[in-house]
From TrEMBL:
It is a multi-pass membrane protein. SUPFAM superfamilies: Porins. Residues 6-201 form the TonB-dependent receptor-like beta-barrel domain. This is TonB-dependent receptor domain-containing protein. Gene3D superfamilies: TonB-dependent receptor, beta-barrel domain (2.40.170.20). It is found in: Cell outer membrane. It comes from Hymenobacter humi. Its main location: membrane. It comes from the Bacteria. Keywords: Cell outer membrane, Membrane, Receptor, Signal, TonB box, Transmembrane, Transmembrane beta strand, Transport. Pfam families: TonB_dep_Rec_b-barrel. InterPro entries: Beta-barrel_TonB, Beta-barrel_TonB_sf, TonB-dep_rcpt-like.
Length: 235
């Protein structure tokens, strides 16, 4: 491997990862009002490649990439969607109104179970948040439809030492939890469809990455509130 970034180094003795995974799932429908999908999984990583925070002779923060140790990642992923009107009135004929709620939840526990690096055993695996939740609702009346979705991601770490702060370079450290709201509305009639959407409705301030190189080094901030308007023509 070749790098040209002064804040990152690579272990010259880097070796291949080895491991195995297993999963068990269940999916199905209940009448015409519920759809669900649930799966359990386990991932055993040997010789997992990751990054740790270290320092050079000038006491500068460096990001060292190499074989961190053995990691075990366990989790459950689930999805469900409920047609609320059909749930309340299962025998009624479909009308002009529609109302549905949906959710996607992932609960993950990733920990290093063995490592020769001091202070790593028992730490959270980097870039593996414990909670990843997406939930929302859709409503419609004839040609009009609207939806809102909330996304929540719990805190995560960018290196195996679970460093909270990375100094002035900010290339390592904790990535805080955040919540984002998105909304959209649409209208469709024969050959014309108009749709408007707002991303990051609450104008939340957050970040998801700590970059070592361009456009970093440092955190990459999120986009603020943004608006989109789309017109589609079918023929």
């Amino acid at each position: 491997m070749r790098i040209a970034n002064p804040s990152a180094v690579i272990d010259p003795n880097l070796q291949d990862e080895r491991g195995f995974s297993a999963d068990l799932g269940l999916r199905g429908e209940q009448g015409q009002w519920l759809t669900y999908d649930v799966s359990l999984f386990a991932l055993q990583y040997g010789n997992r490649i990751g990054e740790v925070q270290t320092y050079d002779a000038a006491d500068r923060v460096l990001r060292r990439r190499g074989n961190i140790g053995r990691a075990l990642i366990l989790g459950v992923e689930s999805y469900a969607e409920v047609d609320l009107l059909r749930a309340l009135r299962p025998t009624a004929e479909p009308g002009r109104w529609s109302l549905a709620s949906f959710g996607n939840l992932a609960l993950i526990r990733g920990r290093y179970t063995q490592s020769e690096i001091t202070g790593v055993k028992g730490n959270q695996v980097e870039f593996v948040p414990a909670v990843n939740l997406k939930a929302g609702a859709r409503v419609g009346y004839g040609p009009f439809k609207g939806s809102v979705q909330a996304t929540y991601l719990s805190k995560q770490y960018s290196d195996a030492t679970n460093a909270e702060l990375g100094g002035v370079s900010a290339v390592v450290g904790r990535i805080p939890a955040y919540t984002v709201l998105d909304a959209s509305v649409s209208w469709e009639r024969r050959w014309l469809k108009l749709e408007g959407s707002v991303n990051n409705l609450a104008n939340a301030v957050y970040f998801t990455r700590r970059a070592t190189g361009y456009p970093g080094p440092g955190i990459l901030p999120s986009d603020g509130r943004s608006f989109f308007l789309t017109a589609a023509v079918k023929w």
